[in-house]
Amino acid sequence: MLNESSAWQEQILEDEEAIALSKMDKTIQHVEVFCYASQDLQEDVEEAGALQKNHASVTSADSTEAANSACLPTEDESSSTASSEVPAEQTPRSDPGSAPEVTEAEVSGEKENLCDDKTGVLSTSEEGTSENVPVAEDITEQPKNNRITYSQIVKEGRRFNIDLVSKLLYSRGLLIDLLIKSNVSRYAEFKNITRILAFREGRVEQVPCSRADVFNSKQLTMVEKRMLMKFLTFCMEYEEHPDEYKAYEEMTFSEYLKTQKLTPNLQHFVLHSIAMTSETASSTLDGLRATKNFLHCLGRYGNTPFLFPLYGQGELPQCFCRMCAVFGGIYCLRHSVQCLVVDKESRKCKAIIDQFGQRIISKHFLVEDSYFSENTCSHVQYRQISRAVLITDRSVLQADSDQQISILTVPPEEPGTSAVRVIELCSSTMTCMKGTYLVHLTCTSSKTAREDLEPVVEKLFTPYTEMEIENEVEKPRLLWALYFNMRDSSDVSRNSYNDLPSNVYVCSGPDCGLGNDNAVKQAETLFQQICPNEDFCPPPPNPEDIILDGDSLQPGASESGDVPEANSEPPKEHANLEKPEEPSE
User: Cα–Cα distance between 167 and 33 in angstroms, integer?
Assistant: First the structure.
């Protein structure tokens, strides 16, 4: 729908037409939030580091609504609580990464819980922290068996960095190679994923990956260790021995594994924890290719193939933006775009009009799929991703160290459903407060996110209740849970959109895959279409080699110009990516 405001409509000339952009973010749906942590009755809790608020501007109705939002009643009351869902139309375009909190029946007006570029920080708004939310102690050093309350989570809210997209970096993947090549790695720090886990027969087990892990494993018999090593060695060289798999190319990888004299235990490990492929949809070649990629990435930075950026996946776009800004890129923050302006004669886009009616002219326009209106996307068919984000009090698999970063695949129980990927992050990843874990669950949607993922949550965790505080329970306690569905536009063809000008380029939202290869390939493809003769993300020049236009006029310009910013901060984890023989901790 076109904006009724005449501010930008008056900018459209007779020989032009407008392609209106959506003002509502419809990529996130069915948002449901539950709080299981203790609801204590103290007052005036404030998030640590929050700005001083004006209490006079906070109404009692607003504060009551905000304090109760995202809180699940006690078990006695839960049966009478209405299910909470957020329709897509209620998510505003001004904050495309937001996932609003939910009250018992409808969406509250606050957006602060999950926000900013696909990465959110769990916190409460000013209204929600005024009067009806309890006071918390300082829990920097949280005892293992101590009660964690909702007010403590609120107070430490700035320690939570919640990615709306849960991914890991393969140590030899396209994104790591690009970070090193472009020198963007200087702006980021990474942690190794310390464990690959499997869920089998109702138990969580650690999967041996490297040769040392296999032979040190107490879960496998000596015969199984030899079987597994022989098969993994073949997978590393499978392309050189086509005769050994050609006859099985038409069958699924799961069926192929049954022909390889592997025990059911080993078949489960290879299929779900190493290849991480679908039991019914992945072919033999898909599985062999995925297994080889997994093994190829082992040992570059640690004992697993994966890295995770400190502060979350949302740090990576900031790193690229920072490098771009150093070399002259300009960003307009909190600046929405109303429409694209198309020349009727040439059928090319010539400008955009922003929220203030200002016209900005350009030759090329990159637009993310979610910004297009329903008219433009009327023939597009989207897939959906089911997501859950949990805060728990301990790991799904206890170990000597409580700073474990783990990935776990839970196989599907019913035919036609997808396996659920679980990524568990500890506090050293800078995504949650001490004494807690941040757990991400992801799968391809078949129903709503809660319907898809709640059965897995119930297998791995138990709700946090007052009765269980004194008694040690086998499963980790669930303190807080968020469920939502998000759009997967990664496989949408450009031809599916209606009447797009040739100089408007579409980039998709996040996909359901574990790695980032799809995003890197898409970025390079779009770059080559716009700049066909240029190198994609080339290494930046040394600051002393850069000559600015004004340098000849101002001898001291290099001291006051933009160039020194390239070295304004020391590289953080650049050495780790450049020198894989020194794994990060």
Answer: 22
φ, ψ for residue 342, nearest 5 deg: -115, 135
- The Cα–Cα gap between 13 and 343 comes to 9
Q: Give me the amino acid identity at 518.
A: N
| Residue 54 contacts residue 127 (beta carbons within 8 Å) | no
Residue 16 amino acid letter: E
Dihedral sign, Cα of residue 312, residue 313, residue 318, residue 320? positive
List of E strands, 129-235: 162-163, 169-170, 190-192, 195-200, 203-206
Distance between CA atoms of residues 456 and 269, nearest Å: 18
Residue 310 near residue 191, CB atoms below 8 Å: yes
Q: Which secondary structure element, helix H or strand E, spans residue 424, and what is its range?
A: strand 420-425
Beta strand 195-200 with 119-120 is unpaired
* Coil vs helix vs strand at 338: strand
Nearest to 453 by CA among 417, 498, 407, 401: 417
10 Å Cβ neighbour count for 387? Answer: 27
What are the backbone angles phi and psi of residue 137, rounded to the nearest 5°? Answer: -80, 170
pTM score over 0.90: no
**pLDDT tens digit sequence for 141-175:** 444 456 788 889 999 999 999 999 999 999 999 99
> CA 1 to CA 241: how far, in whole Å?
58
Q: Please, which residues bridge with residue 485 across strands?
A: 29, 386
Cα(270)–Cα(198) distance, integer angstroms: 10
pLDDT in tens, 18-59: 999 998 888 999 999 999 887 765 555 666 665 554 443 333
Q: Which residues contact 26 (CB under 8 A, 6 or more apart)?
A: 88, 89, 91, 370, 487
